[in-house]
Amino acid sequence: MSKKLKDLKKIVVQPGWLCFVWFGMTAGISLLETPVKFSAPTLSRPVALDVGRVVFQALNKAELVALVMLLLLVRLSGKARELWAYCAAIVVIVMLQSTWLLPLLSSRAELIVAGTEPAPSIAHAAYATTEMLKLALLLILGFRSMMSEHAQAQPPS
């Protein structure tokens, strides 16, 4: 195998690139698109919630794909032992969001779209908290995986 091909393989199985892509995708939706959407003066709350529900369902599907890819890349990179705790925390967050928080928030949005105001809930705050934690973990995991790669490439002095 040529050196260029080996170098390309190292880059492809490096989990850091996926962490940063996932971070950007999630931050773009959660931290930029969503707050901006609710500040649009001509967009009613029910319509904004309905659009948000559809957008977050699509984001969740993309995140599930990213999660599977991340677990595969971490395993293929040979860094599973070093990075397993970060991956486990991200798995727990994504599963919590997918199976509990997003369905609950979606049903609340549907009630509002239908004209009913649901009772107060901690679901939105819980989702926002887990989202920020997931973003932080993706950054940490991305930098940790790249730092360990850089440390391996540097000869000891």
Q: Please, could you describe this protein's structure?
A:
With 157 residues, this protein is an all-alpha fold. The chain has one domain (3-146). Helix content is 85%, strand content 0%. The protein is built from five helices and no strands. The chain has helices at 3-12, 15-39, 45-77, 80-113, 123-153. It is elongated, with a radius of gyration of 19 Å. The mean pLDDT is 92.
What characteristics describe this protein?
elongated; single chain; mainly alpha; 157 residues; 5 helices
Helical content stands at over 70%
How widely separated are the two ends? 29 Å
Q: What Rg do the Cα atoms give?
A: 19 Å
Q: So what's the oligomer here?
A: single chain
Number of helices: 5
Q: How much of the residues is beta strand, in percent?
A: under 5%
Number of strands: 0
What number is the mean pLDDT?
A: 92
Provide the structure class. mainly alpha
Most strands sheet: none
How many structural domains does the protein architecture include?
1
Question: What would the principal axes of the Cα set say about the shape?
Answer: elongated
The low-pLDDT segments are none
H/E element order: HHHHH
